[in-house]
DNA sequence: CTGTTAGCGCATTCAG
DNA sequence: CTGAATGCGCTAACAG
């Protein structure tokens, strides 16, 4: 059976010791080039690949990292994964992906299942930053961990996130400059720093411009699609806002649908601005001003950060990395 | 350090042998309940979890499966992943995910990196069923493998797919029954059985109803967003079809955009039907008749099939599993 | 019922 | 420069 080609087999065929083969394969300085070449050639010829389990056991490294996220079917996360994969491949690592579906129990369950050395490190984007602070406080001591996007503030850990507050502030100012005075806010991620920061940015921008948040104009995201649609429809018909600030992409379609159903012309009657990582968002409606997060880059940064930790490069500098989002205005539509 | 809690440590603390601990942990019939309880209690107390690398090395099993797909950011695949994860968790397995981005080289590279026992089995959805038949013909002998959705016909392997031909036929008949006579076809996945089957179903349905495929009304998907939009726009303005049959979800937004730009009323001037796994597709436009694949179920089936193989349950019956898609008509809009 | 032993494949001492 | 020996943590014969 040629199926069982291991270091021992190579040693036998070449009439040298196992140790020599091992060293040769790892390009050790102790081995002559001639021997190395013999080993490398045969290895290639026999299609040798090291047994990962054995390496893992010996080295206590798995060449695998885990990514824990709420969903994969999400423009932000899927792009982030792409960035993570790119870096992981660069470092020769494999990527385990776990979807929590925003279920905190599952999040902990997955995480716990990784603590026995199945992975070298974890990239996580949590479902809530409130309910299990203690858990994570403890966890960061046990395993190399980087939070990305959905992070824990005030935790002694590495965070990679975006400038939610600033971009939200800017976006709001933009709406105000477009003449909007009655801006409704579609609130998402309310128990996460990102969600709170987005709202704060909105709030502060209003205040700094002599406006105020009207609670009646704030809607909170719920799981039920129809329910979200209804909430927005009711808001529109009862309060006639002149703009919608959507803090998460999930609100875009119901917002459009509601506007269309109620004959609100976009952007003439109502402006819409949304956090959105969908490249085709503007195709859907050219008047949609979007806040686009650097999802791919966040993935790359987070992974890079993790590998710095793994390689003991200390990472010296600050533990928080903040990347800038982009406000993509649609000038042609007057907003 | 309590970090190093292994079977040896348990044995020492309890003054019994390592073997006994191992058997107790695995609930062997050879061990007395009393001893088992002592072991289990201490294990829980010390938070013992077995070292996966050691188990892997010994048992030649990794409790890990790999999923190789073109993209994760795709409604079909992300749902399929959910199904796969569900089954994997049921069997206590972890899931490695690889995105090929339709790059065949990368597809092979990832696959090759898994052949050294890093995973127990592979679920794959290939990027092409033409260019590397030999590769896969060889591969299926080396590793437990299940193809799903994007499969290789005529290969001695397990396939899990959908009824592309039939549903495409039915959908076309539906359009014809709605009075459409000049149906344009937006062709995707052309080098995959699924894509070909969809087109054949369309073709045959036309023929069986006294119509014919007009090559001028067939557009093929390209990577470039703008290009797709242009293709459709040109088609619409030059040939004025009365329906669009979109064989992949990626065509939906450009199709809508083009129609809107050219003032084609949907569904009055032109009907649109599309393969689409987006739950919110009808929100986007209530007149969109969709062909929905059972993505989640495909994931479940494919994974179940793989575990049957892994558990040597032979799986006896046929190697091809075909699940039915659903044609969701929008009666309210007259089509 | 429990313990002794051997070995999975590899990497790393330490001798030569 | 090369090789013999050891052990990572766990499981599985085989003995007792």
Most extensive interface, chain pair and sizes: A-B, 43 and 43 residues
Radius of gyration of chain A from CA coordinates: 26 Å
Strand content of chain A: 15-25%
Main sheet properties of chain A: 6 strands, parallel
Question: Count of helical segments of chain A?
Answer: 13
Q: What is the residue-averaged pLDDT of chain A?
A: 90
GO molecular function (chains A, B): DNA-binding transcription factor activity; transcription cis-regulatory region binding
Organism (chains A, B): Pedobacter psychrotolerans
Keywords (chains A, B): DNA-binding, Transcription, Transcription regulation
Protein name (chains A, B): LacI family transcriptional regulator
Question: Could you give a short description of this structure?
Answer:
The structure is a homodimer of 335-residue chains. Chain A folds into 3 domains: 7-50, no CATH class; 59-161 and 295-322, Rossmann fold; 164-294, Response regulator (Rossmann fold, 3-Layer(aba) Sandwich), CATH 3.40.50.
Describe the overall structure.
Two copies of one chain form a homodimer. Chain A is an alpha/beta fold. Chain A has three domains: 44 residues, no CATH class; 131 residues, Response regulator (Rossmann fold, 3-Layer(aba) Sandwich), CATH 3.40.50.2300; 131 residues, Response regulator (Rossmann fold, 3-Layer(aba) Sandwich). Helices cover 44% and strands 16% of the residues of chain A. Chain A has 13 helices and twelve strands. In chain A, the strands form two sheets. Chain A has a six-stranded parallel sheet with strand order 2-1-3-4-5-11, with helices on both faces. Chain A has a six-stranded mixed sheet with strand order 7-6-8-9-10-12, sandwiched between helices. In chain A, helix 1 crosses helix 2, helix 5 runs parallel beside helix 13 and helix 8 runs parallel beside helix 9. Chain A is elongated, with a radius of gyration of 26 Å. The first copy, chain A, starts with 6 loop residues before the first helix and ends in a 7-residue tail after the last strand. The model of chain A has no long low-confidence stretch (mean pLDDT 90). At the A-B interface, helix 4, helix 5, strand 2 and helix 11 of A face helix 4, helix 5, strand 2 and helix 11 of B.
């Amino acid at each position: 059976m040629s199926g069982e080609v291991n270091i021992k087999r190579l040693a036998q065929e070449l009439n040298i010791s196992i140790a020599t083969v091992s060293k040769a394969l790892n390009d050790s300085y102790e081995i002559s080039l001639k021997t190395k070449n013999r080993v490398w050639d045969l290895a290639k010829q026999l299609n040798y690949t090291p047994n990962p389990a054995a390496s893992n056991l010996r080295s206590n490294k798995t060449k695998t990292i885990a990514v824990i996220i709420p969903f994969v079917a999400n423009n932000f996360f899927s792009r982030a994964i792409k960035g993570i994969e790119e870096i992981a491949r660069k470092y020769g690592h494999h990527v385990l992906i776990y979807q929590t579906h925003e279920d905190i129990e599952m999040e902990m369950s997955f995480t716990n299942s990784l603590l026995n050395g199945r992975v070298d490190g974890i990239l996580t984007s949590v479902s809530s930053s409130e309910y299990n602070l203690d858990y994570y406080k403890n966890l960061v001591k046990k395993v190399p961990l980087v939070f990305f996007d959905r992070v824990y503030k005030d935790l002694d850990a590495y965070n990679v996130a975006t400038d939610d507050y600033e971009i939200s502030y800017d976006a709001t100012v933009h709406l105000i400059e477009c003449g909007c005075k009655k801006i409704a806010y579609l609130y998402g991620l309310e128990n996460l720093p990102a969600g709170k920061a987005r709202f704060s940015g909105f709030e502060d921008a209003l205040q700094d411009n002599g406006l105020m948040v009207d609670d009646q104009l704030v809607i909170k995201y719920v799981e039920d699609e129809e329910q979200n649609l209804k909430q927005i429809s009711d808001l529109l018909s009862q309060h006639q806002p002149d703009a919608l600030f959507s803090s998460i992409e999930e609100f875009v379609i119901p917002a459009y649908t509601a506007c269309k159903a109620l004959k609100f012309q976009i952007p003439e009657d109502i402006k819409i601005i949304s956090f959105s990582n969908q490249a085709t968002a503007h195709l859907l409606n050219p008047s949609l001003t979007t806040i686009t997060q650097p999802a791919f880059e966040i993935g790359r940064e987070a992974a890079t950060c993790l590998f710095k930790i793994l390689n003991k490069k200390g990472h010296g500098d600050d533990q928080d990395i903040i990347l800038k989002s982009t406000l993509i205005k649609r000038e042609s539509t007057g907003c």
